[in-house]
Amino acid sequence: MKKLLFVLLFIFFAVIVGYQVVKSRFAPEYHGTKELSGLQANSEVYFDDFGIPHIYAENELDAYMTLGFVHAQDRLFQMEMMRRVGSGTLAELLGEDLVDVDKFFRTLGIPKHAEWSTEEWNKEGNTPWKAATDAYIKGVNQFIENGKLPLEYTLLGTKPREFTINDVHSIVGYMSFTFAMAMKTDPLITKISRQLGPDYMKVLSVHTLPEHHVIPNNYPNRNTENKEIIFEETLTSLLEKLPVPLLEGSNSWVIDGSRTASGDVLFLNDTHIGFAQPSVWYEAHLEYPEFSFYGNHLAGVPFGLVGHTRELSIGLTMFENDDQDFFEEQLDPNNPNQTVYGDAFKPLITRLESISIKDKDPIEFEVKESVHGPIMNEVIPEIGRLTNNPVASWWVYILEPTRALEAVYRMNHAQNIQEVESAVRLIHAPGLNVMYGDKAGNIAWWAAAKLPIRPEHVNSKVFLDGTSHVDEPTGWMPFEENPMSINPESGFVASANNQPDTLSNGTFFPGYYYPGDRWNRIAKTVSSRNDWTQESIKSLQLETLNENHPITAKSMIEAVENASFGDFESAKNALTNWDGNHDLESIAPTVYYKWLYHTLHGMMVDELGDADFESFLKTFLYIRSVPTLIQTEDSPWWDDSSTEKVESRSEIIKYALEKTLSELNDQFGSNTEKWAWKNAVVLEHPHPLGAKKPLDKIFNVKAPAVSANEESVNKLAFDLNGTGIYQVKSGPAMRIIIDFANVEASESILPTGQSGNLFSPYYSDQAEMFATGKYRPQLMNESQIKNNAKGTITFTPKSD
């Protein structure tokens, strides 16, 4: 026994020592002195309780170079993943499983567009945003050269190449690709339109319905000089291989002083992004003479896409506008290298792409482009199954070089609302709702995007005719006609990925908008009182209630009113009395979502097939169409086309109920108290290497169960499925609250932690706080930061 005890103690101490040795090699450093080549004067970084760097520098370039170093120290591997997605080089690092993903992004044109943007960037003269970006890149590269690289590189047997401006443009391209809703949705809608017909289409919410909630516009008077303000397999399965999350949606609302207890503006933002480890946003606070900014940064981007000074704040949600059309071309029967266009032909432009693959020989493939854009048949399986004709992607983003870096730099350095709007104008794609509030009492929302003018007959959700110019956009709307609201009488602005109201030119602009459930809850709640505070508004940001789900549930109960719930009458009672809250102890969501899945499956899988049905569940079309689909009695979807008889609505819903109760009994037991929502919900933040076992146990971050939901303000989304276990896939990538009565007391939270380095104490320290609805400070007070710092690094100029 003594020998065994000795051996166990030896193993225990060996593991401890081994861990410390490994940690010392790979862990980020938050103390000490470091030299940076090119630094003009000393800069200091103070790390707070949550690892957020507070950078104090003597000048702008030193601040951004310092930011580049500390950003890379915590998030280098995330930068690696994001630049490889945008440049189509994932397979080179992660192997042949990612070849199809690289093909997709190269065909779509993001790497080509990044190179074009870089060419134009290099032609531009000296500008503050170029100098700041170059300084940031120098800081990143000095960490790559001299810092302790994260463990992931050792496990993959590689080292990072230097970071470049083209990498930054590739990352911007990844962000612009966002949620790919047109590519997920338009082929499916085209299939339904062509193969099933108008009776099936009219039950779907392809376009915004009258009962959906729209964002009201409030255009400023730009001609009145005495105004205070004057304004100048399936694509789905392929994308699941991505090692970085996609932007999904977001909420933001800004309340003016007429509705707050302090009389100052309250600003809130929570961007909805796929959950991952590390989480998307990296927080950093920069101070140098005449500049003070606290920002949320994408990996590899020097400027905060979301952030605030002591005078103003900017936030984002996805606009969800339709900026991508698909044109079905017709090949010349005598020459397959050109397409029919009017009375003539247009040549297909071909380029050869080479993809490097880890441990394999490189492969080459051809990309063809018509007059409308790249041909997508081979990289979007749904298109290839639908037609043999070439289908081209016309996408606003790749039509001109991006000026996103200039735009965000200008927003970070803006002094007032006019300067922010001037910067917003530079964003041509992706469509973003830019939210604004300031100390002077102004609130604003602008839809930032270059909006095409389409012919009136065009339905942009189905494949268009590529054989002529008839379906093509005819021009662009001026920015002044974009959706926006400036200082409205309502006392607030809000966006939640829903449809903007009719524009000033009379256009109801198409998009992939959500039905407005979240926006309606925000609008009703904010309007209900005039004494909001930073503390009281948290209940709205954390709310998990949806008012429409109980209506759908009750309509399903009414459809089977003669059917018995048997031993599970308590489940019926729970659904009947459900207010739409997704409380963890409630059983109503557990029953509702499984019953809804089986109902929709019974309705649609015979027409769509399993693959397209699963794709449907991952589109905006599903969210928008459920109430109409479930409540329409005479819908053709109810009939099971695989049988001779004509099934009714009640039959399909009743069969789905029987299946639901049986499966829940098998899954959780006969005691319905065990059907609590907390037992059906799983939240785990996946790391790129976590896809390979047992690395998931090492790198992924598990969190407590959260109140998963569809379209509540605190949106914690999951894929509807028949298993009855719901993996939360996306949600708030941060929750920010700022009261301009005391900006230094602003609060936020991240889903996991500030650092992406496994050995950092800040790797997952916010995960439980996030899951349980807690916040922590966004510090800007210098004495508070310096007196309570958990670590300090002094950067000094390196003598060359």
Report on the structure:
The structure is a single chain. The chain is an alpha+beta fold and 800 residues long. The chain folds into three domains: 45-222 and 233-323 and 404-464 and 475-528 and 738-769 and 777-800, Glutamine Phosphoribosylpyrophosphate, subunit 1, domain 1; 325-397, Penicillin G acylase, beta-roll domain, CATH 2.30.120.10; 548-581 and 587-675, no CATH class. The protein is 35% helix and 20% strand. Helix 9 (181-195) packs across helix 19 and helix 13 packs antiparallel against helix 14 (417-424). The longest helix is centred in the last third of the chain and has 29 residues, at 588-616. It is globular. This is Penicillin amidase. Pfam families: Penicil_amidase. InterPro entries: Ntn_hydrolases_N (IPR029055), Pen/GL7ACA/AHL_acylase (IPR014395), Penicillin_amidase_A-knob (IPR043147), Penicillin_amidase_dom1 (IPR023343), Penicillin_amidase_N_B-knob (IPR043146), S45 (IPR002692).
